[in-house]
Specification:
Blueprint: H1 2-25, H2 34-50, H3 57-66, H4 73-82, H5 90-108
Helix pairs in contact: 1-2
């Protein structure tokens, strides 16, 4: 019985390691929409949480802010200055970035 579940634990640990690596290397691509990037990021986070990883929202918010494309640099700076990152929820961040993305796209047209 012990050997049977030991393999499962090892497999879960390896899967979690792979997901952590994927989370850390994930970057927003040029031209990618904010909603698509958030969906991709949250899909990885949810898989990590299934494997009992306790990733906190502040870690996810910081990761997203670090990995935005350069066209969002001024937005990231203003969000960092105007909000307490420790208190900012993922939904609030996404809403803010969507508003700025809409303004950027509107100005481009």
């Amino acid at each position: 019985m012990k050997k049977k579940y030991q393999g499962t634990t090892r497999a879960k640990r390896q899967q979690l390691q792979l997901l952590r690596s994927e989370f850390e290397t994930l970057r927003m691509k040029s031209g990618e929409l904010v909603t698509d990037y958030f969906s991709q990021t949250m899909a990885i986070v949810n898989k990590m949480r299934i494997h009992d990883n306790k990733t906190e929202d502040v870690t996810i918010v910081e990761k997203i802010l670090r990995s935005m494309t350069p066209k969002f640099n001024f937005v990231v700076c203003s969000i960092g200055k105007s909000n307490d990152i420790d208190e900012l929820s993922i939904d609030e961040l996404q809403s803010s970035l969507l508003i700025h993305e809409h303004k950027i796209n509107k100005q481009g047209k």
